[in-house]
């Protein structure tokens, strides 16, 4: 498949902040960071997580199977690389240190306040997956596979704008790098035009169960447990 290069390893969830910040977890909840070296691509990080979110600035958050929330502090010289943050989430994504979002088991939406003493602000709406970009862009999908873009900074009375299409997973690197996976596993990239025909999404070859998009255009996906990096934007 010319659009994707297979990377050794096995993951069940993946997140990319940039070309050099890619994290994933496998089916056993083991955590891995990409080494930026495909010959030996993954470094095992202590801990156990079920979902992970990596930002362009190196920020990384995760949640475990008990819905506990953690922020990576392993680059700060502490013995425990994960700091527990109060709250309960099932999905999480980080665009940057100041743009972290999640959804809980009931589908409620939360945005990080940047203050651990009172960490989460509840945002109106219901979602099953969420994606946060480095530039503040946020998208989500609900349990009915409807797609929404956050416009709460522009329209406080209705913070979510419905965008045509059907997705079960979504990933956001920036306003212009938004990708998703539909219920059948097909991969889509946002055209940056809500009114582009009847479908603002262009289908990309491949199938996936999870997808990751970075601020610099980096894209990865997982198909079953196999890992792929997007190369469709590079000369063939």
Short description:
With 236 residues, the protein is mainly beta.
Rg measurement, Å: 17 Å
Structural class based on helices, strands and sheet pairing:
mainly beta
**Cα shape:** globular
Strand content bin: over 45%
H/I helix tally = 0
> What is the number of E strands?
24
Contiguous uncertain segments of 5+ residues = none
- Biggest sheet overview: 4 strands, antiparallel
SSE string, helices as H and strands as E: EEEEEEEEEEEEEEEEEEEEEEEE
Kindly report the spatial arrangement of strands forming the biggest sheet.
1-24-23-22
Helix fraction? under 10%
Gap between N and C termini, in Å? Answer: 11 Å
In round numbers, the mean pLDDT is: 96
Task: Provide a descriptive summary of the structure in words.
- The chain has 236 residues and is mainly β.
- A hairpin with a 7-residue loop joins β12 (108-112) and β13 (120-126).
- The protein has no helices and 24 strands.
- A four-stranded antiparallel β-sheet has the order 1-24-23-22, with no helix packed on it. It has a four-stranded antiparallel β-sheet with strand order 2-3-4-5, with no helix packed on it. A four-stranded antiparallel β-sheet has the order 6-7-8-9, with no helix packed on it.
Write the layout of secondary structure elements.
Blueprint: E1 4-7, E2 13-18, E3 21-25, E4 31-34, E5 42-45, E6 51-54, E7 60-63, E8 69-72, E9 82-85, E10 91-96, E11 99-103, E12 108-112, E13 120-126, E14 129-132, E15 138-141, E16 147-150, E17 160-163, E18 169-174, E19 177-181, E20 186-190, E21 201-207, E22 210-213, E23 219-223, E24 226-230
Antiparallel strand pairs: 1-24, 2-3, 3-4, 4-5, 6-7, 7-8, 8-9, 10-11, 11-12, 12-13, 14-15, 15-16, 16-17, 18-19, 19-20, 20-21, 22-23, 23-24
């Amino acid at each position: 498949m010319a659009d994707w290069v297979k990377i050794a390893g096995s993951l069940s969830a993946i997140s990319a902040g940039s070309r050099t910040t890619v994290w994933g977890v496998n089916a056993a909840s083991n955590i891995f960071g990409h080494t930026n070296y495909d010959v030996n691509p993954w470094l095992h990080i202590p801990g156990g997580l079920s979902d992970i979110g990596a930002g362009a600035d190196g920020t990384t958050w995760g949640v475990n199977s008990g819905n506990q929330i953690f922020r990576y502090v392993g680059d700060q010289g502490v013995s425990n690389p994960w700091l527990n943050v109060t709250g309960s989430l099932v999905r999480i994504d980080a665009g940057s240190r100041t743009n972290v979002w999640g959804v809980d088991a009931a589908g409620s939406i939360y945005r990080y306040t940047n203050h651990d003493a009172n960490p989460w602000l509840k945002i109106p709406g219901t979602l099953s997956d969420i994606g946060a970009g480095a530039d503040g862009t946020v998208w989500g999908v609900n349990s009915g596979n409807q797609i929404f873009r956050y416009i709460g900074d522009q329209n406080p009375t209705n913070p979510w704008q419905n965008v045509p299409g059907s997705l079960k997973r979504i990933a956001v690197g920036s306003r212009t790098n938004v990708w998703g996976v539909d219920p059948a596993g097909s991969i889509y990239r946002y055209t940056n035009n809500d009114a582009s025909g009847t479908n603002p999404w262009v289908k990309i070859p491949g199938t996936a169960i999870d997808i990751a998009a970075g601020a610099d255009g980096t894209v990865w996906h997982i198909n079953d447990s196999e890992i792929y990096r997007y190369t469709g934007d590079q000369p063939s």
